[in-house]
Amino acid sequence: MKTLNPMEPAEAIPESPSTSNTPPPDYNNSVAPPSGVTATTADSKGNAVRQQWTSKTEFLLSCISLSVGLGNVWRFPYVAYANGGGAFLLPYIIVLALVGKPMYFMEIAFGQFHSAGPVKVWKRSVPFARGLGVAQTIVCFFIAIFYVIIMSWTMFYFWATLIAAIKSEPVPWANFCSNEYAYKESCVETNAVHPVANRSSSVIPLVVFTNASTVGVERVSAAQQYFDRVVLNKYEKGTMNRFSLSNMGGVNGALLGCLAGSWLIVFLSLVKGVKSAGKVMYITSTMPFIVLFILLGRGASLTNAVEGIKYFIIPQFDKLLTINTWRAAAEQMFFSLAVGSGSLIMLGSYNPFRNNCYKDSLIISILDSATSLTAGFAMFSILGYLAGTLDVGVENVVSTGPGLAFVTFPEATTQMPVPHLWAILFFVMLYTLGLGSEIGLLESVLVFFCDRYPYLQARRAWAAGVGSLVCFLIGIPFVTQGGEELLNIFNDYAAGTSVLFMAIFEMVMIMWIYGVKRFISNLKEMLGEKTGNMGYYMKTAWVVMSPGVLFFILIVTLVTYKPSHDPENPSSIPAWGDGLGWAIVAASVLQIPIWATVAVVKADGTTLKEKIYQSLWPDFLMVIQDNSLEMSVHNGDKVRSIHPALDGDMSERKAYVNSGFAGKDD
How far is it, in rounded angstroms, from Cα 244 to Cα 234? Predict the structure, then answer.
């Protein structure tokens, strides 16, 4: 009797006579289809098989919508600005090449080969790592909650601008200094500032976008005050009394309405599956490119734009030596490409077995990087223009933070012809970016619950509705007057530290435990000998460079960690804010050792060593059957335990066939 070698592709195994008349269990069809996936179908024997994308275009657009999102336009520019522009761009490109692109292809290919979501894929490959799929689902849930908050800010701006346009009024932030909510002592409108040609002139330049004072008073722009005092409502009317995590204040009614509207749109996009969300993908994945190029063209044509672009591409070498810059680059890579969250495994799992996922991942990752760079050039060209207008350095134009895009672009529109049009275009683009990513994140959560509770497949609308309602209720504290600090905590810990832990574990489990040789064999089965063999760059990146770079960043980050709470700074977040951040990390990362322990306890074996070994190998091994779309499950008399020393003594393993396999090419 032959023992399966996990380092080599398994051979086709004839069906056991004892089970030939019994329909096999449906191991493939326990997940709800994501956007653009066909409904459940059956094979020639009536057995349900896993859904697949209706077309290759649906898959590409779904991946683009997931990866090309708010992280590219909202997060990338402000993280780059906070870390010195070019000083951040260089580490970002390095991390993208050594970690991002290899991981992107790895996750899509892993999901495609095993035809399973981010939790079940580990049951079919490395049961010991099942907790990773649970952890990734939790992180997707956390990110989805605060993603919608950014979408709500965007919706607020959209309606405010549209109403102003209908009333033939200026954009609402243009003349905000005369508003009753403004703090007039520090508010400065851009049109009140003039370039200073002669320093002896009686005209005193005012630094609009920075809290550094030039005349004894901290001055901020009208756009900044509008964002802080109307959109977020984090100050008492006309005063400097600020709400914070220690004093959350009341709920911002207008923002709460935008939050409810955003969740309604997300729900409608999810509930109809291919009938609605699939169509949404065509808009969310294409419109951002059009608008970004328009904004880039306009920004590049502005006076002094080249100074901002130079700041973006020329690094400050002193900042290259700080670990925070590299950590920010790694976190931004995770946030932008959506690697490490399990969503790509889910999307790849619905591909046909022979799909060229290497080509797909290359196209998508290049588009993602191009979008980030385009957004960066557009943003920094406008910053250069504003720096020239205000006669300050680019680094002093604005205060950095999550609100950068909501201050810089609106302020720039006041200097453009037809400002309402430019503002509406920008906020519609930003909203569609967020919607595309939000759908991908929540699909991963839905797949997890439908994996766990298969009866939810027939109740997709109910599941999506309950999930949206729960997320809406959880999101209410984020739209209180002090809710911005809560968003910052989720952004820093859920989308940063947590994913860093999980990405390292994922790389180790796939490339060291599942095995790079076995993974390459899988690729050869799917892509053919030439494409699937991969080059030295990809193999080295998977086995050494990616986990090595991430592990180094993680260790140095933990060693140099400083809490956000500062007892000597009353304006810093309270100590429990840091505790909340680490609780968010623990809620996801601790799933890994918990479920690993469960896998070891349930594994066959008489000693701990045997149990640990058995927990590293699945109960169901991949078996390729030529010209077959059927699911096959084989009893132990056909496939023995993969542990040679335990063969005959342990519960024997089974095998499954990827239902998406379409046979060898003619």
Answer: 8
Contact 638, 2 (CB under 8 A): no
The Cβ-side half-sphere exposure at 55, using a 13 Å CA radius, reads: 8
Task: Give residue-wise pLDDT tens across range 246-259.
Answer: 888 899 999 999 99
Nearest to 334 by CA among 112, 478, 116, 550: 550
Whether the Cβ atoms of residue 623 and residue 13 lie closer than 8 Å to each other: yes
Residue 454's nearest CA partner among 120, 121, 30, 34 is 30
Structure tokens at 57: 């275009």
pLDDT of residue 426: 85
Q: Which long-range contacts (CB under 8 A, 24 or more apart) does 421-425 make?
A: 422/295, 422/298, 423/157, 423/161, 423/171, 424/158, 424/161, 424/162, 424/165, 425/291, 425/294, 425/295
d(C-alpha 403, C-alpha 149), whole Å: 12
| DSSP state letter for 242 | B
pLDDT digit string, tens, across residues 495-530: 778 888 999 999 999 999 999 989 998 898 888 887
Q: Are strands 620-622 and 654-656 parallel, antiparallel or unpaired?
A: parallel
The rounded distance, in Å, linking the Cα atoms of 465 and 263 is 9
Question: Which pLDDT score, from 0 to 100, does residue 1 have?
Answer: 34
Minimum mean pLDDT among 24-28, 77-81, 186-190, 382-386: which range? 24-28
Helix, strand, coil percentages (3-state) for the chain, rounded to 5, are 60, 5, 35
Q: If you ran DSSP here, which 8-state letter would residue 142 be given? A: H
Q: Which residues of 294-318 are buried (b: 16+ CB within 10 A; e: fewer)?
A: ebbebbbebebbebbbebbeebeee
Token pair for residue 446?
Answer: 């839905």
Quote the DSSP letter at residue 81.
H
Q: Can you tell me the distance from the alpha carbon of 641 to that of 135, in angstroms, rounded to the nearest whole number?
A: 29
Residue 563 to residue 467: CA distance in whole angstroms? 33
Chain length of the chain? 666
Question: 296-321: per-residue pLDDT in tens?
Answer: 887 888 788 888 888 888 887 777 87
- CB of 62 closer than 8 Å to CB of 281: yes
SS3 613: helix
Amino acid at 592: I
Instruction: Indicate the pairing of strand 187-188 with strand 220-221.
Output: parallel
Distance CA 468, CA 453 (A): 18
Residue that wins the pLDDT comparison between 134 and 34: 134
Rounded CA-CA distance 442/536 in Å is 36
Beta bridge partners of 242: 235
d(CA 97, CA 540): 12
CB neighbour burial string for 431-456, b if at least 16 within 10 angstroms, e if fewer: bbbbbbbbbbbbbbbbbbbbbeeeeb
Q: What DSSP element (H or E) covers 221?
A: strand 220-221
* Residues with Cβ within 8 Å of residue 648, at least 6 apart in sequence: 640, 641
Rounded Cα–Cα distance for residues 380 and 200 (Å): 30
pTM of the model: 0.78
Tell me which amino acid residue 501 is: F
Q: DSSP for 154-174?
A: HHHHHHHHHHHHHTTPPPTTT
Supply the DSSP string of 340-373, one letter for each residue: TSSHHHHHHTTS-TT--HHHHHHHHHHHHHHHHH
How far apart, in whole angstroms, are the C-alpha atoms of residue 518 and residue 193? 65
